[in-house]
Amino acid sequence: MIAAFQRRRPRLGGRDGYERRWGLAVSFERFKYALGQDVGMKYQGRSPRKRTGGRRRNFRNKRKHELGRESTETQVGEAKRKNVPTRGNTTKVRAIDVESANVATDSGTVAAEIENVAENPSNPNYARRNIVTKGAILDTSEGQVRVTSRPGQDGQVNAVLLD
Q1: Among candidates 82, 56, 55, 50, which has minimal Cα distance to 69?
Q2: Is residue 109 part of a domain?
Q3: Choice among 1-15, 46-60, 70-84, 136-150 with the minimum mean pLDDT
Q4: Residues of 98-133 as b/e, b for ≥16 C-beta within 10 angstroms?
Q5: Distance between CA 43 and CA 65 in Å, rounded?
Q6: CA quadruple 16, 21, 23, 24: dihedral positive or negative?
Q7: Residue 160's closest CA among 102, 104, 115?
Q8: How many H helices and E strands in the chain?
Q9: Residue 20: inside a domain, yes or no?
């Protein structure tokens, strides 16, 4: 007699890409994503951990409106935008590439050409890859500016001139 913890479990998958269940050969995908690939933010629901570090039990399943999307990572280049449908029958405009910024100066607002990303406090690699996020410091035709908008959410770059 076999104890409960010694029962045999079905094999997770064969070498040929088929799994045997109940005597049937069932096809399955071996890897949904490439190993080591960053797939971005996926779930924006409640955290499974409490503030104290204890585990929080689920009281319901995940909902579609809690599903996140991958980050846009707006780059400097020829202007390119994308409309994304959102909840409540509205849309967001995502800036894929931007070439100009609306710069607020003492005299008013000026459209300035973006040359490159000088510094990005959210991630040092973003400055090397010319990725624009909120808080990034850009070199423009008007001088150095700090981004105050979220280009991946708003579809435009608003900035203030640095002293």
Answers
A1: 82
A2: yes
A3: 1-15
A4: beebebeeeeeeeebebeebeebeeeeebbeebbbb
A5: 9
A6: negative
A7: 104
A8: 2, 11
A9: no
CATH number at residue 94: 3.10.290.70
Q: How long is the chain? A: 163
pLDDT of residue 102: 97
Range of the domain at 84: 74-161
Which secondary-structure segment (H or E) carries 84? strand 80-86
Short-list 130, 141, 155, CA closest to 103: 141
Residue 102 has which token pair? 């609306």
Q: Exposed, middle or buried: residue 33 (CB in 10 Å: 0-12, 13-18, 19+)?
A: exposed
- In this predicted structure, which of 1-10, 80-89, 110-119 has the lowest mean pLDDT? 1-10
Nearest to 82 by CA among 147, 131, 155: 155
